Amino acid sequence: MLKKRLIPNIILNEGNVVQSVNFKHTNVIGNAVTAVDFFNSWAIDEIIVLDVSRTRKNREKFHKIIKGLSKRCFVPLTVGGWISNIDEMKLFLKEGGDKICINTEAVKNNSLIKESSKFFGSQCIVVSIDVKKNENQEYEVFINRGKDSTGLNPIEWAKKIEKLGAGEILLTSIDKEGTKQGYDLELLKKITDNVGIPVISFGGVGKWEHFVDGINIGNADAVSAANIFHYTEHSTFNAKKFLFESKLNVRMQEFYKLPTPRRPKYDEIF
Amino acid sequence: MISIIDYGMGNVRSVSNAFEILGADVEIIDDPKKLTNSEAIILPGVGAFRDGMKNLEKMGFINKLKEEVIDNKKPYLGICLGLEFLADKSFEGGETDGFGWIKGEIKKIETGNDELKIPHMGWDDTIIKKNTRLLRDMKNPVFYYLHSFFLEVKKTEIEHIESICEYGKTKIISSIHKENIYAVQFHPEKSQESGLKLINNFLELIKEK
Question: Domain range holding A162?
Fold first, then answer.
C-alpha cells in the first residue's frame, strides 16, 4: 500500500536556507547541502527545494546548489520557484531534479501546466497553491511569493490544475505558515475532497501531531514542513517514528551493507 | 564503462549520482555510437512514452540499442520509461510502438478505487515473486514509484516477472528480467537505501556474468 510521505521543504533565499514565517524570509539558518545531507540520512521520503529570492539575480547559484544537492539526494527532489518555461524545467531535471514545482507562472499562463505535463508526464509537474484568507475572510489564491491576489478560489483552481494535467498539488496556507499552529485543516480538506491527484500539505507544523492531523483529518497524501526540521534535533527521525507509532502507513528505513564511501566530500560538490 | 542514455527525458543526473556513489564507472551519453564500448546500458526516463520514443528515434538510439542489447547481449537496465519501452506498444498519448523486446502493452493504471490516485506516485510495498539477482538479499523492499502507466505482458512472458506491486486492482510489474534485460518500474536511484542496494546488485551481476 502506498505510504504516506514525509517531506522536508528547504526554502532558499539568494542561495541560503532561510526560515519562513508568513512568507517573510529573514533568518538565514544554514546551507542547503548540509540540510540535505542531514535529511537524507534519515527516513524522509522526498525533498522539496524552493527558491524564494526576490529577483533572479542569483539564479545561477540556485542551479549550482540543485546540481550539488542532487549528488547526495537519493530520494525524489522537487525544485521550484521562478520557473516559467519548459527549457528551464529541462535544465533542472538535467541537474538532478525529479519534479518541477510551478506556481505564479501557472496562474498567469495556464497552458504551461498543460504543456509541461504533456512533455514530461503528469507525475513530473507539481503545482503549488498559496492560499490566504482575503478581506472577506474567503480563501483566495495568491501569487508572487504571496504578494499578489488573483481572485481565484483555491478549490476551483485546484480542480482546474488537475484538469490541465498536473500530477500533484503542493498546498500552502500563507496564514499558517511559520506559525507552528498546525496546517489549515479546513482548507486542506476542501482541496483533498475535490481533487483526485495527490496533495502535499505545507505550512504551520509546530509539533509532530500536526503531521498526523494533516493525514488523518486533512486527508493529505504527503505532509511537509520547513522550519521545524531545522530547529529540532534528530528531527526527521523523530517525526517518522511519531507517524509510525501513530499507526500511519509510513515507510521505515531499511539498511543494507553497501560498499560505499557514502558521502562525497564537500569540495567535490562545489 | 556503463552508459546512461540521456535523451532529454528526465532524471539522468540522479541515476548517474546513484551509480557513482557506489563506485561505478558511468558516463552519461547522448551519442548512440558510444554504446559500442559500453559494458552495460542504463535507460532511465521520466515522462511521456511517445515523446521519449520520438527522442530516441531522432537521436538514432533505437537501432543501436537493438544491436547492443539484443544482438550483443549487453546487460540492460531499464528504469521506469526504460521498462515501458520494452513493450510492443503503449497507449499513452495515442498508440505508439515500443522496442517489442518483451511481449506486452503499456496501459493506463486502473485502480477501481477513487481513493487510489493516478499517477501511482510514492513509496510502495514490493512483493518479490521469485529468487532474483536484482533483488538479492531483499525481503519486502519499499521502492519509490512514479508513473501512470504500467506494463501488461503476454502469458509467455509471465515467467520473467520478478516482483509486483499491487495498486488497487492493477498488479503492476515492478521488475522483470529476461536474459540480459533487466527493468524496473520504480526508481532505484530515488529509493534511498533499498534503491542503492538494487543498483549494487546490478553492478555485481555485471561483474559475475
Answer: 5-269
